[in-house]
Give the backbone structure.
Amino acid sequence: MHPYQFFGRESLLNQIYWAWHKTVPESIAIIGAERSGKTSLLNYLNRITQATQLRPDQPKGWPDDWLPSHFQVAFMDCLDANMSRPETLVADVLQQFI
């Protein structure tokens, strides 16, 4: 949940940055084995520009404008049985954008 606890993944972060900064931004999918750091990566991406506490050797990440201006993040727990119903999934995502 805290960017100062995030380590490494510079290559992956660069891939995401360039995918989102193309003339037509690309979608990305974060996939990987259980406990491989997918949620940590997403939390980092969502919180790095507002981070107030970082390690001394840790770069702040990308510039404040690293996210496209229309970018929003929604988190959903796909292991939650309720999210298997399309109406629940859509309602949960929309609620996060209010």
About this structure: The first helix runs from residue 10 to 20. The chain has a mean pLDDT of 77. Residues 1-63 form one domain. The radius of gyration is 15 Å.
